Amino acid sequence: MSNNTNYHVAIIGGGYAGMAAAVTLAAADVPVTVFESAKQLGGRARGVWHNDVQLDNGQHILLGCYHHTLQLIEQVGGNIEHDFLHLPLQLTLHNRFELKAPRLPAPFHLLAGLLSAKGLSFGDRLRAARFMLALRRINFTLPHDISVLKLLRKHGQGDELIRLLWEPLCISALNTPIHIASAQVLLHVLRDSLNGLRSDSDMLLPRVDFTALFPKRASEYIKQHRGKVLTACSVEAIIPHGDKIELITRPTTIASEHTQLFSHVICAVSPIPAARLFRTVPQLAFIAEQIAAIPHQPIYTLYLQYPEQVRLPQPMLGLDRCFTQWLFDKGQIAGQHGLIAAVISAQGKHQNLKHELLAQKVAQEICEQLGIMEAPLWHKVIAEKRATFSCETNLPRPAHTTMLTNVLLAGDYTAGDYPATLEGAVMSGMLCAKTIISTFQ
């Protein structure tokens, strides 16, 4: 590696994309400064406190195929075995459907799981297995993108099979309703999780909050490699300045503004602030409009604290025909006994309810479906109204490069194979970092 002494990279945003970029650069001995406007790191995957209990702003799941994310967690000091509860592939809708993949080599584990799934007719199980074999034959690649629903209909997947298996899977993976969701992006997820090693389909449920899992450790790693991580410090403007980029920053607790010059800037914030920053730079105006046009989808996470003895039949459980889509027993996952997280992904009628009423309905569903008669001691509703981009068919997604060669864009919504996942965010950040590193190798 040759001279990098003239490099100093600014990273706007301390979420998973920004911190992945910063760690990759720091490991290559490139000085970095991370600017995070919030008081804590993590972005849309961050830890929060409520009633002296550590929560997350959303209940994310990692898969065994998230190799980049898992590698970076270990690189900054994490321990995958201790940081996660590992579950073999399983989808369970309480008293309605159950798929459990046996410990066989891929793809036989999935085919065996589909053929032995409970709650489906033998014909539906056979059709599901044939569908997966058909996807393997075409290498999980379509001639042109279509909706998930259209693809399922094309391959003879019936209403019951779609409702119990493919729709929950699509909503969980893409956070987008199946009638508009991109079939090609879903196939990328199926390819990487179900068509490689058996362990690639494992579900990993974090035992620690999402800030502690990676961003906090990454911050220490960056500081040990001559970098800086500034929280409560927002970037107000990006200004091209010769072969440098000038940033105007404002600490949120201090009124005065500061300017700093950098060789490169990686913008790793969510779409709205990214579009705002880019819109005032003539060379970035087009990409700003492209970012602003990206549709979005919500995720609602409801935490209900029950008495400590309350537990679910298993750590992760789905419900059929309910507001609640998935329940997570934080006692079994993270030792937070009696705490249950309910997740409602994508758009739906729940958005029309006030939070108090929605929490009541979720508690009622838990009572009716699972026979848990105790009332929650408290609840907390976290509504991320722009949790992810809406992963729709043929959606234009911005590239990581821009018209300014020293300004790059990172985020789970940028161009790539994946939907809005932690792995997609991490991969985009690493791609930006490696693009910069390649200029001085």
TrEMBL record:
MF GO annotations: oxidoreductase activity
SUPFAM superfamilies: FAD/NAD(P)-binding domain
Documented EC number(s): 1.-.-.-
InterPro entries the UniProt entry points to: Amino_oxidase, FAD/NAD-bd_sf, SQase_HpnE, Zeta_carotene_desat/Oxidored
Pfam families: Amino_oxidase
Keyword Secreted assigned: no
Ranges for domain Amine oxidase: 17-437
Keywords: Oxidoreductase
Protein name (database record): Phytoene desaturase, pro-zeta-carotene producing
Organism: Candidatus Nitrotoga arctica
